[in-house]
Amino acid sequence: MGERVSRAERTHPERFAPPSHGFAWLRMIGALVVIYGHSYPLVSGNDMFPPEWPVQPDHGLLMGFFAMSGFQITGSWVGDPHPVRFAAKRVLRLWPPMLSVSLFVALVLGPLVTTLPSAEYFGEQRTWGYVVGNTGMVTLRHHLPGVFANNPWDGSVNGSLWTLPMELIAYAGLWLLLLVGAARRRSRWLAVLALVVLVVVDRRMAHAPGPDSPGSLLSVPVEPLLSFLVAFAIGVVLRLYSVPRSPLAATAGLLALAAMPMSEATAFWMTLAVSYAVIVFGHHWPARASVPGVWVNGSYGVYVWAFPIQQTLVLAGIGNQWVLLALAAPIAYVAGTLSWRFVEEPTMRLRHYIAPRRAPGTAPAGTVGPPVDPASAQREDPPTEPIGSPPSVPVEPPEERTTPALPRVPPSGSGEGSRLPEPPDRSRG
């Protein structure tokens, strides 16, 4: 039997946009909400939410994005279960925007706003350490010499990037899981097993006695990594199994979350409710709200460019969070759209050279469900072409990236803090 969908999707498919477009809308909205979430801390130097809260709204937003990412890139494997091509697609999606913003910030913006003379700035080891560390993605640096040093949020250049190594680790874990056959019908229980293991370890860590954090893996704080991997794994399982996608159930889950008291149990329920809800709402995005893809495909660019834009505006004298939001949101939106048009879309088109040739209406061996017709595949399997892309070029949708939310990074070896862009190696600058 093929993958079951909700009654609404079976009876009125014309009411809903392709899931890739629904996910694109959700990601863009989330990316703009992140700008709001960063505005208060960047002008005040204080956290937006009390760090002792077990339920952090910014974490809930981020978990939703990880769930969408797990759902969509699992669909990419289902459509083309080839290990090398799968890895190449992930690199082509994740790395170019990260590289472009890091090089621009270090080599163009940094020299313009640093308090140091240009010769001293370029002679600093930290300048080139920022370029090399961020290019490698798993050894991030968050500070450049003299850049934003006097801003309220003490010198972090692009604190938003701290979640990208987590995404890379999630991709690598899923690649290994799929490599052993988790996408095949007879072996997909492996995905459920991985989810259960992540939940058990995450819950044990959440209830572990003592104030100390479990620390960091390279530049990745372990505790939030585990909680976000749970959301990612939920997305994977929802793609491999025929779980009904009910808007009523998704809405009820979110309402129950809003009514629950602040507790660790509520924090776990947030992971489940938000992860399920974003998958459901992505599949039920109204068709009448569809727009050209270029309008909403730039959410990844909005996310990686917004933080340095906000810090630059604060440096220019903006001290009110609402003014900062009003100025930064449209600038970041334009930057994200340009990033999509001139960085992400061109590099994603390189997939054309590694994509398999397959007759329309056929499905590769080992995938879940029988072959489907092209029309239903367009609606049900997000990793096809994004809206607005030429039909002759096989490009995966831009939404398989996680657009992360307001970070909470504990310094290495300390209790779980909540300073937004704090890297584990802060003491080394």
UniProtKB/TrEMBL annotation:
Keyword Hydrolase set for record: yes
N-terminal signal peptide: none
Segments traversing the membrane: 21-40, 60-79, 91-113, 161-182, 189-205, 225-242, 254-279, 322-343
Keywords from the UniProt entry: Acyltransferase, Hydrolase, Membrane, Transferase, Transmembrane, Transmembrane helix
Alphabetized InterPro entries for the sequence: Acyl_transf_3_dom, Acyltransferase_3
Statement: the UniProt record of this protein carries the keyword Mitochondrion: no
Compositionally biased residues, Low complexity: 359-370
Acyltransferase domain sequence ranges: 23-334
Start and end residues of each stretch annotated as Disordered: 359-429
Gene Ontology molecular function: any one: acyltransferase activity, transferring groups other than amino-acyl groups
Pro residues compositional bias, start-end: 384-396
Pfam families the UniProt entry points to: Acyl_transf_3
Protein name: Peptidoglycan/LPS O-acetylase OafA/YrhL, contains acyltransferase and SGNH-hydrolase domains
Species this chain originates from: Actinopolyspora mzabensis
